[in-house]
C-alpha cells in the first residue's frame, strides 16, 4: 500500500542517532539544546522548548497561556482532536468557529462572532501546511484580550506575508510525527517569544521543577535541591530523538522544495479532472505542504476513497470535525455547528505526499484518481 505520508530517513539521520547511543546521554542532554536552537532559526529567533509530541506541545502551550476552568478557547474543528482536547482537559470550554471554504483554515469573521470576555485564547490551525490569516486573527484575539495560539503541526518552515510560522502568534506548537515534514519519531515543540510564558512552558514540561537557587523558597538545602512550585508533567523529548530531529531540520529546505514540486505536479496532472477541487493557496503565503487535500464533489468521496485504497493507494481523510467525536457529542456539541467545516470534511481526500514519493508513484496516483473520476 502506497501511504499518504511517511518519514524520510537518510543515513545521516541514522548516524546522528547512533552517535547519541554511543555517548553519555540518552535523555536530556546536549542534543536537546542543539535541536531547540536549530528550530529557532525557523521561527525567526523565537525560542523553542522541545516536548514529547504535538499533543504535549498543545497542552504545554495552553498551560503557558493560563487556560483553565471557566475560560473559553476559540478554535477550528477541522483539525486532529488534540487541538481541542488539550484545552478541554484543562477545564476550558472549547468554542468551535467555522473555517474558510477554500483553505480549510479558521475563519476570522466566524471567530470574531464567537469571542466573549471569557475567551482566553484563539487557536488557529495551519491546515495542510497553509498558514492561517494571522493578521486578521491577531485583531480578533487582541480585541478580546486573548492570546493567539498557532497549531503549526502541519506548517513548519512556512511563511505568512514574509514572516515565518513561529513568529506570528503568542505561542506556536509543532509536531514531529513521522508523517510530518520533519520527524523525531514522536515529538513536538512550543515556541514562545514572551519570557514569562516561555519559562512557564519550560517548567511545566519538566515536572514544574525549579532548580535555580535564586528562585527557590528554600535554597539552602544543598546542591541537589530542586523544588516544585506548580504542578507539571514529564514531557521531555530525549537526546536520542532530538538528534534525529536536528539531522532532519538540516534537510528541511530540501523537504519543503520536494513537497512543493510534488504539489505543482499534482496541480498540473489533476487540473482538468472532473469533480475535483484542488487545494487553494493565498498569494501572500509560502506553504510548507504537509497534505495535498483535494475535494471530491457530488457525494463521491467514500466511493473514491474505497476504490483508491483497493488499488493500493493509501489515501486518507483529514479530519472528522472535532466536535463530531463522541466525547464532544456527550458534552452537548451537535452536528451543524460549523457547516463549512462539515462540508469540507464531507469532500476532503488527502493524496500521498512525502519527499521520497517518486514521480512514477505520483503519476500512478493521479492516473488512478482520474480514471475513477472519469
Automatic annotation (TrEMBL):
GO biological process, one term: polysaccharide biosynthetic process
SUPFAM superfamilies in the cross-refs: PLP-dependent transferases
Active site: residue positions: 180 (proton acceptor)
Keyword Phosphoprotein: no
Xref: InterPro entries: DegT/StrS_aminotransferase, PyrdxlP-dep_Trfase, PyrdxlP-dep_Trfase_major, PyrdxlP-dep_Trfase_small
GO MF annotation: an example: pyridoxal phosphate binding
Superkingdom of the source species: Bacteria
Cofactors, names only: pyridoxal 5'-phosphate
Keyword Transferase: yes
A Pfam family matched in the record: DegT_DnrJ_EryC1
Sites of N6-(pyridoxal phosphate)lysine modification: 180
Protein keywords: Aminotransferase, Pyridoxal phosphate, Transferase
Family per record: Belongs to the DegT/DnrJ/EryC1 family.
Protein name: Aminotransferase class V-fold PLP-dependent enzyme
Record organism: Nonomuraea longispora
High-level lineage: Bacteria, Bacillati, Actinomycetota, Actinomycetes, Streptosporangiales
